[in-house]
Amino acid sequence: MSLKDAEMKYNREDEEDDDGDGRGVEAWERDYADERSWESLQEDESGLLRPIDNKTLYHAQYRRRLRTTTAARIQKGLIRYLYIVIDLSRAAGETDYKPSRMVVVARQVEAFIREFFDQNPLSQVALVTLKDGVANSLTGLGGSPESHIKALMGKLTSSGDASLQNGLDLVQSLLNQIPSYGHREVLILYSALSTCDPGEIMETIQKCKASKIRCSVIGLSAELYICKYLCQETGGSYYVALDEFHLKELIFEHAPPPPAIAEFAVANLIKMGFPQRAAEGVISICSCHKEAKVGGGYTCPRCKARVCELPTECQICGLTLVSSPHLARSYHHLFPITPFDDVTPSATNNPSKLPKICFGCQLSLLNPGNMPAPCVSCPKCEQFFCLDCDIYIHESLHNCPGCESFRHSKSVVA
Amino acid sequence: MTPVSSKLYADDVSLLMVLIDTNPFFWNSAQSTLPFSKFLTHVLAFLNSILLLNQMNQVVVIAAGYNSCGYIFDSSDPQNQNKRAEDLLHKLEEFVDNDQELCREESVDGPGFSLLSGSLSMALCYIQRVFRTVPLHPQPRILCLHGSPDGPGQYVAIMNSIFSAQRSMVPIDSCVLGAQHSAFLQQASYITGGVYLKPQIFDGLFQYLSTVFATDLHSRCFLQLPKPAGVDFRASCFCHKNTIDMGYICSVCLSIFCKHQKKCSTCGSVFGQAQTQNSSTTPDRKMKMPVDG
Ligand SMILES: [Zn+2]
Ligand SMILES: [Zn+2]
Ligand SMILES: [Zn+2]
Ligand SMILES: [Zn+2]
Ligand SMILES: [Zn+2]
């Protein structure tokens, strides 16, 4: 959510620039003429183009908020194993995206990986690159966004041809080893207009289908029949991005679990441990690298072995180890707070009942001249909040300060 | 946004949100070796020293009581310019009386817990308002002066607050005055990059506060502040609100249970066979493969 906000703010600033600073400069001098800034204009309900003002921003957020609260109880804890296959063939060096396709793809993949782990805390991601006709495993399956992003950013060069078959073969062999409760997915970001394969790709596609791997492709150039066929056969989605913004949208569509796999997912109860983090400066031998390490590290609650990173599986006793804050990141979906009600000054006849300050931030809810400013109230605790707190509470905090501040309403949790 | 004001709001100007635990059951229990009045003298001296360190510094005090939470003091309020200590103590007394009136239980087992989640949520709302209203604002941080044991029922709310603070890059410092460590505050400080401290000798509380928590965020980079002595990542189960280090997770909604269940009480999914650990370990280990590079 915060990402989207930031982006909207960014767009807004862009437009303000257009009216203000941009005026004195020749059009051809302006950097963003290249970046097609006119495409970032927003359309309103009646189809008119207009700069976004605060009010529409507020309403857009409000609508989005209502949507998320109603759809809150859909499956958030699916355990997905996603391979992101990035085409780094010659075609990825093309500059129709600025500065180049691969840089844009890498940037979007970085944002996507963070969002993915936010939405799928138990899932794992791995990166595969296609280059010089071969497929390389850049990172193994893991739950730490930083290590993937670091590996990707260090490998950004393009050369040779892309081989879809080699990529699929590699991913298929790796995905065959994951536990049965995991969902297998591949997301291919394909720049090339051809695939240079060593054998019959149709057989590989059938193998992927048999292994229940859902393959999706996002193209950067034009539609390819083989990609479309692959996605159709394996139940994935195929789209071709029009520009960077569209590419981002397409990639981010893969962050929430796809409804198709959510349907036939079998619910499971998985035993997990929440290891304690060891004190800084303590020396111990970790079970994953078999090395003595200073500080950090986590202790398996069952066998007390030391591991370096979470989430992982204990090397000694096999218990799945997760960090509990990792799980807790999604709990606001389980216990969404009810939308606040608008308070219209005319509705309450009794002027003494009208709120004076916002319960959350202590802001005065009276406009100059003692006129009541617009505000909202929580239906549960009946405290009043200003509009800004309303947005913050629903979009980021996910707690009602009023409900949390009174013991009698403790039943809201659980 | 004149150049003058940008100079005034240098990176060492702080907005300190202090959350004071006023749970009477804790302060009267055997767990607290420090009387509440003594505690307040230390805290008042500390708050004064913060305001003296930089004339632009701002202090806001929120009380986390047993039945309610409330704003006690705001140094930016023009009414609070003189007689700071008196105003603060007066408001605090009022708050504690109100809090007591709300109390319906005659006595509680043990010290009970205070409403940490409510006071954290209020502090975060206040910080957002400061972010919104002034383009150049002091650097906010939250200091929890907490003694009561963790209330496992607040687990979700506190975690939500922690993540929101982390997103807005607001560190949560904690000074734990109770007998045991607080798993909530350990996680809060660890995740938000704040300092967690459990003083050994309460007579020297002011010294702890002034040496560890008085420095602004910028100067902290140059100091050797206490390192966490481990972080307790245990979670609360949704079924009994027990604190557990091992449990069962619903694969649909990630709810945590302390015992095996047939059906998830949060999302209603009916579970198939419980995942026995051994079935998944052997193939998993093969996944470690040479990473290209
Ligand atoms: Zn173990
Ligand atoms: Zn407010
Ligand atoms: Zn409420
Ligand atoms: Zn339980
Ligand atoms: Zn569930």
UniProtKB/TrEMBL annotation, chain A:
| UniProt keyword annotations, A-Z | DNA damage, DNA repair, Metal-binding, Nucleus, Transcription, Transcription regulation, Zinc, Zinc-finger
Location comes to: Nucleus
Would the keyword DNA damage be found if you checked this record's keyword annotation? yes
Region Disordered, residue ranges: 1-26
Give the highest taxon in the source lineage: Eukaryota
Checking InterPro entries in the record gives: C1-like_sf, Ssl1-like, TFIIH_C1-like_dom, TFIIH_SSL1/p44, VWF_A, vWFA_dom_sf, Znf_C2H2_type, Znf_RING/FYVE/PHD
Start and end residues, zinc fingers (C4-type): 300-317
Q: Would you name any one GO CC term?
A: transcription factor TFIIH holo complex
Q: Where in the sequence does UniProt note compositional bias of the Basic and acidic residues kind?
A: 1-12
- Output one GO MF annotation: zinc ion binding
- Answer whether the UniProt record assigns the keyword Repeat to this protein: no
GO BP annotation list: nucleotide-excision repair
Q: Where is the VWFA domain?
A: 81-255
PROSITE patterns reported in the protein's UniProt record: VWFA, ZINC_FINGER_C2H2_1
The Swiss-Prot or TrEMBL record describes its family as follows:
Belongs to the GTF2H2 family.
Quote the PANTHER family the UniProt record gives: GENERAL TRANSCRIPTION FACTOR IIH SUBUNIT 2, GENERAL TRANSCRIPTION FACTOR IIH SUBUNIT 2-RELATED
Q: What is this protein called?
A: General transcription factor IIH subunit
Organism annotation: Salvia divinorum (Maria pastora)
Automatic annotation (TrEMBL), chain B:
Q: What does this protein do?
A: Component of the general transcription and DNA repair factor IIH (TFIIH) core complex, which is involved in general and transcription-coupled nucleotide excision repair (NER) of damaged DNA and, when complexed to CAK, in RNA transcription by RNA polymerase II. In NER, TFIIH acts by opening DNA around the lesion to allow the excision of the damaged oligonucleotide and its replacement by a new DNA fragment. In transcription, TFIIH has an essential role in transcription initiation.
Q: Does the keyword Zinc apply?
A: yes
Keyword list, A-Z: DNA damage, DNA repair, Metal-binding, Nucleus, Transcription, Transcription regulation, Zinc, Zinc-finger
Q: What is this protein called?
A: General transcription and DNA repair factor IIH subunit TFB4
**Subunit info?**
Component of the 7-subunit TFIIH core complex composed of XPB, XPD, TFB1/GTF2H1, GTF2H2/P44, TFB4/GTF2H3, TFB2/GTF2H4 and TFB5/GTF2H5, which is active in NER. The core complex associates with the 3-subunit CDK-activating kinase (CAK) module composed of CYCH1/cyclin H1, CDKD and MAT1/At4g30820 to form the 10-subunit holoenzyme (holo-TFIIH) active in transcription.
Provide one Gene Ontology cellular component.
Answer: transcription factor TFIIH core complex
Q: Which cell locations does it reside in?
A: Nucleus
GO MF annotation terms: zinc ion binding
InterPro entries membership:
TFIIH_Tfb4/GTF2H3, vWFA_dom_sf
The biological process GO terms on file are: nucleotide-excision repair
Query: Compositional bias (Polar residues) at which positions?
Result: 273-282
Question: Where is the segment annotated Disordered?
Answer: 273-293
Q: Can you tell me which family this protein belongs to?
A: Belongs to the TFB4 family.
Keyword DNA repair attributed: yes
Compositionally biased spans, kind Basic and acidic residues: 283-293
Q: What is its main location?
A: nucleus
